[in-house]
Amino acid sequence: MHSISRTGVRAVLNAVALVARVLAVALCVLVLVDSLDVGPLHTALLGVNGLATGAIPPALQGILVFRTPMGGAFRGDFALVATALFVIDWLLARAAYRI
């Protein structure tokens, strides 16, 4: 019975780590795309950016956002949250390995 609970906890930790990793990668892609002038895709990105902005803590919204030479805007708030999600992913994966 003890090994089943360990296996279950390990599976949950790995699943949450995977979700954090996927969200972090998605935010990194969004930071990259936002940094470029994407022309007609800009309108579609507004909805995605709005969704991502709503998902990050209000205290971080708008921090380190500035224009880039490539015609877009670097979203430092998204980059900070992505970094935090990568750290959470690493910590959870490490905890799951130790169990």
Summarize the entry for a quick read.
The chain is mostly helical and 99 residues long. It is built from 3 helices and 2 strands. A two-stranded antiparallel sheet has the order 1-2.
Question: Topology of this structure?
Answer:
Elements: H1 2-34, H2 42-55, E1 65-67, E2 73-75, H3 76-98
Antiparallel strand pairs: 1-2
Helix pairs in contact: 1-3
> What series of H and E elements makes up the topology?
HHEEH
* Number of E-state strands: 2
Task: Report the helical percentage.
Answer: over 70%
Span from first to last CA? 15 Å
Number of helices: 3
Features:
single chain; 99 residues; mainly alpha; 2 strands
Explain this structure to me?
With 99 residues, the chain is mainly alpha-helical. 71% of the residues lie in helices and 6% in strands. Strands 1-2 form a two-stranded antiparallel ribbon. A hairpin with a 5-residue loop joins strand 1 (65-67) and strand 2 (73-75). Helix 1 runs antiparallel to helix 3 (76-98). The longest helix has 33 residues, at 2-34. The model has no long low-confidence stretch (mean pLDDT 91).
